Amino acid sequence: MTLLTGWGRTAPTAAHLARPRSREEVAELVRRASDRGVAARGLGRSYGDAAQNAGGLVLDCTALTSWSLDETTGLVTAAAGLSLHDLMKALVPRGWFVPVTPGTRHVTVGGAVATDVHGKNHHADSSFGAHLTSLTLVTAEGDSRTLTPADDLFWATVGGMGLTGVITEAVFRCVPIETSRMRVDVERTRDLDHTLETMTATDDRYRYTVAWIDLLASGGRMGRSVLTRGDHAGRDELPRGADPLAFAPGSTLKAPPWAPNGLLNPLTVRAFNEAWYRRARPATGLVQGIAPFFHPLDFVEGWNRVYGSNGFVQYQFVVPFGEETTLRRIVSRLSAEGVVSFLTVLKRFGQATPGMLSFPIPGWTLALDIPAGRRGLAGLLREFDGWVAEAGGRIYLAKDSRMSARDAAVMYPRLQEWRKVRDEADPAGVFRSDLARRLAL
Ligand SMILES: Cc1cc2nc3c(=O)[nH]c(=O)nc-3n(C[C@H](O)[C@H](O)[C@H](O)COP(=O)(O)OP(=O)(O)OC[C@H]3O[C@@H](n4cnc5c(N)ncnc54)[C@H](O)[C@@H]3O)c2cc1C
Which domains, and CATH codes, for the chain? Predict the structure, then answer.
């Protein structure tokens, strides 16, 4: 038995862990599963209990790493355990980029499909599922099925949190790039209204955009932000002699193996936020590498340990456009309560995929990291859940570790439809996870 947690390091549970090396081994393990069922796991970057299965079997898919690229069409066929980190190292020097990347490269293709990940380009390009042309799934009977967007099971699997089967392969379209650099504009906003106005008016000029919000700023500065927006740079924007497609990302720092609880407190985070806000000098046309633009956190290996042994809660919700009052209400409450969130990120979502349990809907999404030991946190977030649900919004299942089954059913109105498709594919309920049990999925 192995003790597993998500990236937030809360709620550990023990499971039998197996690391299949082929689709056949996946099928064999699924066929032999006990009545505690099977959950697939990638690199464990979901924050809560999605890739855990207490007392059952967890299939670590990271040994499934084959891939190929059709250089004329940009279609990639990748095994589910391949990380976006390894894929980018192969693709970028060949002039291609993944269609969507989350804020870390250390996720697997299977994890990206199962949570239908979004990136800074959701307003322009939607989420990962929109770029898939087919999937291979090992089903509850241990059969291998190839699914396309014409199949209901495809859209139950995209964003389906691994509960329809084990994804073993995905085919998706990549984006041609001339260089491995980004052309970036940086702007600071005065307060939340200024942030929302600026993003609404000018986000569409960029393929990638994100706002970092200083949650500890209060009064007239509440919601002040640093906007970082950009596009892939062209060859003519690089200095002469630069290798246009050079890409060698890595982590340069290692977080200490242990950190005291409470290291991130209002004092340290306020000082960090102030420095970050001031350091972000407004600029246009900065040329920056892919890694610092998309994955700044990946420079510090194991940064999640900085939260101490209590771990942390990531709270990410989306509310539809027109429900900005709910967003303001939550930001002002967090600011008034002095809730410490080291990294608070706001994005605008565009068109959703047909994924039945996919998180993104057109609207505003806010993500915050809060140390788990904070007194009163559970009650505060429960209150926010109610406001988000009332506004027609939802919490991201890949980040969640605490929501109730009742709220999940309200937030995900296609849950019944998804259950019907899932039940047809897996009538005995072979695929399970701690998250699925907690939310009665
Ligand atoms: C620093 C950081 C930044 C992030 N930024 C973003 C972001 O910007 N946007 C975003 O959308 N997400 C973001 N995430 C969340 C992350 O992208 C997702 O949780 C992703 O699913 C993690 O991939 P993984 O391989 O680690 O999957 P895991 O965490 O191991 O698993 C996640 C889910 O996928 C399922 N799964 C995994 N592999 C398979 C498979 N082969 N077959 C079937 N199901 C499978 C699991 O059962 C589980 O339900 C971020 C996470 C971190 C740590």
Answer: 67-177 (3.30.465.10), 181-402 (3.40.462)
